[in-house]
Amino acid sequence: MKLRGRTAVVTGGTRGLGRDVALALAGAGATVVVAAREVADDPGDGLIALKADVTAPDSVASLMDTVHERYGGPHIVVANAGVSRPGPVASLSVEHWSEVVETNLHGVFHTVRAALPYVRAAPGGRIVTMSSLLASRVVAGAAAYCASKAAVEAFTAVTALELAADGVTVNCVAPGYIDSGMGKALIGNEALWPRLAPSLAAGRPGTGDEVAQAVLFLASPQSGYVNGQVLRVDGGVR
């Protein structure tokens, strides 16, 4: 139970990959708060749920303050909340572009910034952001998503440099094609998936738990000298 006594916050942690990550952290002994715009009173599996909107700075600041007052920390923050609004650039609406950037990029900024006073004060503070294979391997029709995730990787690298002297590590996990969260719908797309599947060197999609275990490593004491990195969990993509 290598995270016993640590408090973790996972944004977008009530479903999909976020919940997979939350369960892995809880399984390692952490007190885990999952945050989303809508949450159940009891999210189950020993998790704690609090409402927060990552696109609203005051909402995320209130979340971190509440976590600190009730549970201590937070010592670990996983900025996972994200959305996708596919569409070619020529017809992608300004509203959909803005929604993706507000959630996937600005939401990470708001989350990390609000958490800084607490993770800086915590011995061995950990911040993990979530990117995607599509940050570096672009596909047509995903301009907003690809751009937002590429920006998250750059933001992660800069923040890692700025916080290293405080003993805080900041790393990024970039899932490939995963059978959880948004990836589940992609795998079920009968028109698109047959074109993507041959690129999987592993011969199969990844699992949510495989991504969660990568996050768990970066959140743990064992990753103390890993900083500013993008850990790609894609099974090898040709």
Molecular structure report:
The chain is of the alpha/beta class and 238 residues long. It has one domain: NAD(P)-binding Rossmann-like Domain (Rossmann fold). Helix content is 41%, strand content 15%. It contains seven helices and seven strands, in the order E-H-E-E-H-E-H-E-H-E-H-H-H-E. It has a seven-stranded parallel beta sheet with strand order 3-2-1-4-5-6-7, with helices on both faces. The longest helix is centred in the middle third of the chain and has 28 residues.
What's the short story on this structure?
Helices cover about 40% and strands about 15% of the residues.
Features:
7 helices, 238 residues, globular, alpha/beta, Rossmann fold, 41% helix, 7-stranded parallel beta sheet, single chain
Task: Compile the SSE list and pairings.
Blueprint: E1 7-11, H1 16-27, E2 31-36, E3 48-51, H2 57-71, E4 76-79, H3 94-121, E5 126-130, H4 143-163, E6 169-175, H5 182-187, H6 193-196, H7 208-219, E7 230-233
Parallel strand pairs: 1-2, 1-4, 2-3, 4-5, 5-6, 6-7
Form type: globular
Ends apart, CA distance between termini: 36 Å
Biggest sheet layout: 7 strands, parallel
Strand content: 5-15%
Unreliable stretches (pLDDT < 50, length at least 5) are: none
The CATH superfamily is identified as NAD(P)-binding Rossmann-like Domain
CATH C-level class: Alpha Beta
Summarize model confidence as the mean pLDDT. 94
Per CATH, what is the topology?
A: Rossmann fold
Order of the strands making up the biggest sheet: 3-2-1-4-5-6-7
Domains counted in the coordinates: how many?
Answer: 1
